[in-house]
Specification:
Helix content is 29%, strand content 24%. With 492 residues, the chain is an alpha/beta fold. The chain has two domains: 270 residues, no CATH class; 189 residues, no CATH class. The protein has an eight-stranded mixed sheet, with helices on both faces. The mean pLDDT is 97.
Length: 492
């Protein structure tokens, strides 16, 4: 069997002023052709799962591109045509292909396409014809459209948040493709949704209502003919028609039972719409708690700056939480990270050991997360920010903050980075010379993914909304294209 393998992924926060161009995909990872297996085989990724099955089955794999940009604003048309075009051109160049495996996100929006994955799959289907099976993996936070379901044979989404099952879901999609190519099954997918932007507590799978919905989905998968069921929490920072939770059911052939199952599960998701997934503090509340916090050595207090999460398109330069910690006199803290290339360059020019006064953070859009802070302190680290994820999420995958520098001010080590990247791995601190277990308090710009690496070591976890672009205050988001009425913007 000859199989096309590709990955083209981005989670688009349409309210961000910063677009994702081709260079931004290269900043996270962008591998082409034979680079793909060399870089991704054996990692915690969907493509690694594809390759596991391909090797076992002896498939001839046509490698195209594997790329992922950090969440941000819309993907440029240039990046769309250049990177997505690699996949489409492979389909044109291989008319005898037997199947396709794609790792997509499900929440990509481009300058020209609100439903970018649906557009890609429609164009791919036009090249392949109706009979070539196409199996697709999606993020748990996909905004799934009817067009995606219509043009993909199978849709398989992550079942964990933090996402630690990427490789397993890749294996599942590849096994479905194997069965389809062998003629054992004829996968067809349906999608169901409700008038809701939020649900299942954002998709958390360490606790909360998502666990019950997933358990019911696993039970329904035991029914004859059911191939795969996915529960998607949706991505709420996208001003598109189909934003919000959805359920997909992939079954063998056309059967009304698939629709019945999808609607049953969506009823469960609708019932959870008011659950926001636990208490969220203001920066001042978190700072007061941190000032009084006493914990054992090696088990730091972890404060998640969820309102400025680069993993949801946040700018990564909000200063509201840092300001609150400074005002409360909290010490022995590491903050990871504030994206500020200017501050990094200034510290690099001054050199390690120098005392500097800098404007830090708040430079992209101070409306979200506060203005720059004028800080005086000592430069304690300057160096490259390249590292390999320790895991469990993204284990084995390379990443880079670009050049990094650390400013020590009033007992707080402020890690500044050149590239935008969610801090979800312990090695992300270590690359800046900070040992996470050696600090009393860690601040991570992340909403949920940080729990995979930092949860086991944390003495306590606090979640903060400091008003960044990933704030929970949806009244600040000027939705114009989203279907209405919709919860929570219009109904309770």
């Amino acid at each position: 069997m000859r199989v096309i393998v590709g990955q083209f992924a981005h989670e688009t926060n349409t309210f961000s002023v910063q677009k994702a161009d081709t260079e931004d995909f290269h900043k996270l990872f962008c591998y082409r052709g034979n680079e793909v297996p060399a870089k991704l085989a054996g990692t915690s990724s969907e493509v690694a799962g594809f390759l596991d099955v391909a090797q076992r089955e002896g498939w001839s794999v046509v490698h195209t591109v594997a790329t992922f940009a950090n969440p941000s604003g819309k993907v440029t048309d240039r990046a769309w045509h250049e990177l997505g075009g690699i996949i489409l051109e492979a389909a044109r160049a291989n008319p005898d292909i037997d199947g396709v495996l794609l790792a997509l996100h499900g929440a990509m929006v481009t300058e020209s396409h609100d439903d970018a994955e649906g557009q890609l799959l429609e164009e791919l289907r036009a090249i392949l014809g109706p009979d070539v099976p196409v199996a697709v993996t999606l993020d748990l936070h996909a905004n799934v459209s009817d067009r995606m379901a219509r043009h993909a044979s199978a849709l398989v989404s992550y079942r964990t948040y933090p996402h630690v099952d990427m490789r397993e879901r890749g294996q599942e999609a590849a096994e479905l493709l194997r069965r389809a190519m062998a003629g054992e099954v004829r996968p067809q997918t349906v999608v169901a949704r409700r008038p809701q932007l939020l649900g299942v507590a954002g998709g958390r799978t360490d606790t909360g209502p998502m666990l019950d919905v997933l358990a019911r989905a696993r039970a329904l998968e035991q029914e004859p003919g059911v191939l795969s069921i996915s529960v998607n929490a949706g991505f709420s920072k996208a001003d598109i028609v189909d934003a919000g939770p959805a359920v997909t059911v992939t079954g063998d052939g056309d059967d009304p039972r698939w629709r019945t199952m999808a609607e049953e599960l969506m009823d469960m998701v609708w019932a959870t719409r008011a659950d926001r997934g636990g208490r969220v503090l203001t920066p001042a509340e978190a700072a007061r708690h941190a000032a009084a916090w006493q914990g054992e050595a090696g088990r730091p207090l972890v404060i998640a700056d969820a309102g400025d999460n680069p993993g949801g398109g946040g700018y990564g330069d909000s200063t509201s939480l840092l300001q609150a910690l400074l005002e409360a006199g909290v010490r022995d803290v590491a903050v990871g990270s504030i994206r500020d290339a200017e501050a990094v360059a200034a510290m690099a020019a001054a050199g390690v050991g120098a005392e500097v006064t800098l404007e830090v953070g708040g430079k992209v859009d101070p409306v979200f997360g506060g203005p720059p802070l004028r800080l005086t302190g000592q430069v304690v680290h300057v160096g490259p920010g390249n590292f390999v994820h320790e895991g469990p999420m993204w284990a084995g995958l390379e990443a880079s903050f670009g050049q990094v520098a650390v400013l020590r001010t009033a007992g707080i080590d402020v890690m500044c980075a050149t590239n935008l990247l969610q801090l979800l791995d312990r090695n992300a601190f270590r690359v800046a010379g900070i040992e996470p277990a050696g600090k009393r308090i860690l601040v991570v710009k992340s909403s949920q993914h940080f729990r995979a690496a930092f949860g086991p070591m944390a003495g306590e976890i606090l979640v903060v909304d400091g008003g960044g672009l990933t704030t929970r205050d949806y009244d600040r988001m000027p939705f114009r294209k989203l279907r209405r009425p919709i919860f929570p913007l219009d109904t309770q």
